[in-house]
Each structure stands twice: as C-alpha cells, then as structure tokens.
C-alpha cells in the first residue's frame, strides 16, 4: 500500500487520518502542535518532526491546513523534498488562487490534486464526507474514497472553487435563518413554532445546520472561507453575512466555536 504523509491534525484532519489508519495504510503524520499527533503514534503512525521529514518517502501527501498562509509555510518546506511520482492532495479550504500558486511551485513528476471536503467532524470520523476532487485524481481516488464520496469537479482548482461556492451557500442560509428568527423574536412569535415552520419550508436544511449539535465548523474558519469568496466576486449578501460572522469571531470565546454559536450571537447581540 502507498506510504501516506498526512499534514494537519485539526478537528477535520484528525478524523480523516484515523480513517487511513483504519485502512492500514502506512501513515506518517505531522502537526504544528506535536501533542495532537500522539494518539496517532499510539495507533501505529510514525511521527515526523517537520513537514519535510514527513513527505520525504511518501507516495501520497495529504494536507489539511487552516488557511492559505499555513499552506504556503508548509509548501516552503515540502516542495524540495517531494519525490518524483508523488501525489499531493490538498484538502484544505484555501480557494483556487492558492491551488494555482502551489501548482506553479511544484516540479515535474509531482501530481497535484485539490480535494476539499464537505461535511463536518461527524462525517470525517465515519467516512461520509463529500470529496470535491479537481485535477487528475486517478492515482489517488482509491485513497480519497476512504473519506467518503468522491466527485470529480473538473480541472485543477475546480474543487477548491466549488468548495467556496458551497460554503458560501451554507453560511448564507444559516445567517438567513438567524435573521428570520430575529424577526420572529421581534414579532413575539413562539420560538419553537417559528423554527418548525422554517424547517418545513425551503430553508429546511439551513435550519437543521443553524441549530445542529455534535458537529463543528469554527466561526473563525467560516470568516476565512467567506473572505475568500467575497474576494473572488462581488457578493453583497455574502458580505453582510461575513460581517455577522466576523463580529462573532472577534469574541475569543466564540472564534473556535461552531457556527451555531454565531447564530445565537446574531439573534441576541452582546
């Protein structure tokens, strides 16, 4: 089986790396905070002291990082160490521009695939993510299948682009539900009655996500994603949502909390 290097063991990355360990892939892990890698070492993974060390002998490199800046820092260390024939699967939410910049840094013989995912931590753990694969994913599709359903999106960068579109729609819907509940509160409606009526309408999925439990999409990460989207096109409605989320993320107690907490902040500002 391929030797896989997995870089980035945050909430999503950790669940995905466990899927690879469960499939008995030889796995080397690296994380900026080494303590987060300890459970993986105990389960049979090798720990690398640096990104460069992690990828040196890897057939497949998977990165699941916080933002374009983190990807840039890792790429600086990783690119000179990639062996010819390696596949780099970039699964972070960084937008298509970052993917194009990364592709320009790679030498011949290294295949880059952008494959961000849809779904939260519960789906990462159970292998039910939606994988949006851009570029030539033929050599790694069997690896990506451990994470969930793989959808080929088109040329390199298209997976990263579609992820921004989908995240913007999710976050926009959640913010719209929050504002609808603000209106319901202002008009004196019973909360459960208003919520049930919304759930039975066209915003049903957004209502479920606005009040979800046991999942995690950090508010600060949502701000990052919408900032990338609003940079790519003029999106007045999304800019308003971005301001809602940015205001919530400025509170240190909410920045790393799921976006459901931002819904509460929108309804009841501090």
Please render the helix and strand layout as text:
Layout: E1 4-7, H1 11-22, E2 27-30, H2 38-42, E3 46-47, H3 51-55, E4 60-63, H4 68-78, E5 87-90, H5 96-105, E6 111-114, E7 117-118, H6 121-126, E8 129-134, H7 141-144, E9 148-154, H8 158-186, H9 191-199, H10 204-210, H11 219-232, H12 236-249, H13 259-267
Helix pairs in contact: 8-9, 8-10, 8-11, 8-12, 8-13, 11-12, 12-13
Tell me about the largest β-sheet: 6 strands, parallel
Instruction: Detail the poorly predicted runs.
Output: none
If helices are DSSP runs of H or I spanning 4 or more residues, what is the number of helices?
13
What order do the strands of the largest sheet run in, or round the barrel if closed?
A: 3-2-1-4-5-6
- Which structural class is indicated by helix and strand composition? alpha/beta
What is the string of SSEs from the N terminus onward? EHEHEHEHEHEEHEHEHHHHHH
What's the assembly state of these chains? single chain
General form: elongated
Amino- and carboxy-terminal Cα gap: 53 Å
- How many DSSP-defined strands? 9
Rg, Å, rounded? 19 Å
Strand content: 5-15%
Helix content, binned percent? 40-55%
**For the residues shown, what is the average pLDDT?**
97
Structure characteristics:
13 helices; single chain; alpha/beta; 270 residues; 14% strand; three-stranded mixed sheet; six-stranded parallel sheet; elongated; 50% helix
Structure description:
With 270 residues, the protein is of the alpha/beta class. The protein has 13 helices and nine strands. The strands form two sheets. Strands 3-2-1-4-5-6 form a six-stranded parallel sheet. Helix 11 runs antiparallel to helix 12. It is elongated, with a radius of gyration of 19 Å. The N and C termini lie far apart (53 Å).
């Amino acid at each position: 089986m391929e030797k896989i290097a997995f870089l980035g063991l945050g909430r999503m990355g950790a669940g995905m790396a466990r899927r690879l360990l469960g499939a008995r892939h030889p796995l080397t892990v690296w994380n900026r905070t080494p303590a987060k890698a300890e459970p993986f070492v105990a389960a049979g993974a090798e720990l690398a002291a640096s990104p460069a060390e992690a990828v040196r002998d890897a057939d497949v490199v998977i990165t699941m990082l916080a933002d374009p800046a983190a990807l840039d820092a890792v790429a600086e260390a990783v690119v000179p160490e990639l062996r010819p024939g390696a596949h780099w699967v970039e699964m972070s939410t960084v937008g298509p521009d970052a993917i194009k910049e990364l592709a320009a840094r790679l030498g011949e013989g290294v295949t880059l695939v952008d494959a961000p995912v849809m779904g939260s931590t519960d789906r990462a753990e159970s292998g039910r993510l939606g994988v949006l694969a851009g570029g030539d994913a033929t050599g790694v599709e069997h690896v990506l299948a451990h994470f969930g359903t793989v959808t080929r999106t088109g040329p390199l960068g298209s997976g990263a682009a579609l992820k921004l579109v989908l995240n913007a729609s999710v976050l926009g819907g959640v913010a719209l539900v929050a504002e609808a509940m603000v209106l319901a509160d202002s008009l004196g409606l019973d909360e459960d009655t208003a919520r049930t009526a919304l759930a039975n309408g066209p915003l049903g999925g957004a209502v479920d996500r606005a009040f979800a439990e046991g999942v995690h999409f950090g508010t600060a990460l949502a701000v990052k994603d919408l900032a990338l989207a609003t940079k790519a096109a003029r999106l007045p409605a999304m800019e308003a949502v971005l301001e809602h989320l940015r205001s919530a993320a400025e509170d240190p107690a909410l920045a790393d909390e799921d976006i459901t907490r931002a819904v509460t902040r929108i309804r009841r500002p501090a």
